[in-house]
Amino acid sequence: MAKFIQVDPELKMSATLKVIGVGGGGCNAIDYMIQRGLSNVDYVGVNTDAQALEACLASHKIAVGVKTTRGLGAGANPTIGKKAVEDDKDKIVDVLRGCDMVFITAGMGGGTGTGGAPVVASLAREMGILTVAIVTKPFKWEGHQKMKYAERGLQELRHSVDSLIVIPNERLLGILDKNTSAFQAFDKPNEILYEATRGIAEIILIKGMINVDFADVKSVMDKSGVALMGTGTASGENRSIEAAQKAISNPLLEGVSIKGARSILVNITGSSNLTMHEVYEGNNVIFEAAGDEAHVIFGCVRKDEMNDFVSYTVIATGFDREAAFAPKPVEQEIGNNGFGNAHSGFSKNLIEESEPETENTDIEFPAILRKSATRKVKPIRAAEENQPTLNFEGFINSPMEDTYRKSRQNPPKNSIEDDEDDEASSLLRIMLD
Fold it and tell me: What is the Cα gyration radius of the chain?
């Protein structure tokens, strides 16, 4: 006798995602996401500045600390920002009810975002919500005090979230053309925050032939600490390999290799012309870089509107700090609009200025897949003949690693000026418009 299971039509069958922008920087970030068309998520703006909050495009707006600040802002004081959110935490709890996953965006170093974001994160985690913070660090020229506030805010965030992704504004100089306008440059962090949020949200919300669901994402990101999230898109003869390389290479986030990540979620998106051989080639790039010990969850989504493009999204977590260090690049290949090859790199001054200001900086900025490749980009199908295998097995726990660590402690005066080229593709710069 056949048995039928009746599904309650009122029962929620999909994950509910919210993006909460805390402070001026966080609200600017969600405005950018809304303007770029990131849908199927709820947006919440939280601020002490009533005027800025009024202009925010979020569907839900929460004015915090009105009694303390009278709607005039936190005055770049994180203590005031923290108290403001704590005073109105009931409003935060109300808007979080029924949420499965929350993205918290903020600019570290100011008042409301720096002091308030950890409070929002703590409230979300207490409610059992998967909590991911995607935040920026200030430019160095914004001052020592602001950077100190940012470091303290990040330290509190680490203890309050499941996963933390940090974008250092200072490193944007390494990927921006010198003729880029200041207004475009200031919008670049919002673009990076958007790409990170969109990449994770689409994994959860878009059903695939090999589906990756919310439970998969949660298993990778829950209580995982520092996370690396990358997207890459490419077309042409070697599109899957190029997309995979872009997804695990990044000129912004520096210091830690994908080697040593304990959990990796890989999602590939393509049209009906995506071949099994291409899936194998792209996945092999990621698996060789990660090593055999990583727990891997794989998903595949068919979107015919992708046409000749293939997109990879990779989330890597559970990094072992001691096993994951990789040499810092002097110069990298980054994508022009995410697809072409445009040459960019870190100058001597940029590397010196953006060296870790505290012991925690390296672990915040995981960069992966450092290829000591040839100077010119060669066809990737000839990779086995012309380029080295992407495998770091021989580096970890070897004399080379000891030499590298000693050179980090006592660098020669002109070591940064050596003309050593690295090839890498850009991360979080997928441009499908």
Answer: 22
Residue closest to 97 by CA, chosen among 128, 64, 118? 128
pLDDT at 14: 74
String of DSSP letters for 87-156: HTHHHHHHHHTT-SEEEEEEETTSSHHHHHHHHHHHHHHHTT-EEEEEEEE--GGG-HHHHHHHHHHHHH
The CATH number assigned to the domain with range 228-433 reads: 3.30.1330.20
Return the structure tokens found at 17: 């995602």
Q: Is 329 helix (H, G, I), strand (E, B) or coil?
A: coil
Tokens of 35: 């303007």
Tokens encoding 243: 């997309």
Q: What does each C-alpha distance from 306 to 234, 247, 368 come to in angstroms? A: 10, 17, 26
Instruction: Tell me the two tokens of residue 140.
Output: 């160095």
Domain limits, the chain:
17-161, 228-433
Q: How far apart are CA 291 and CA 418, in angstroms?
A: 30
For the chain, the maximum distance between any two Cα atoms, rounded to a whole number of angstroms, is 81
pLDDT at residue number 17? 93
Instruction: Give me the torsion for CA of 64, 67, 71, 72, rounded to 10°.
Output: -120
Question: What angle in degrees, to the nearest 10, is found between the helix axes of 112-126 and 23-36?
Answer: 70
- Please give the CATH superfamily to which domain 17-161 belongs: Tubulin/FtsZ, GTPase domain (3.40.50.1440)
Look at residue 201 in the predicted model and tell me its pLDDT.
Answer: 85
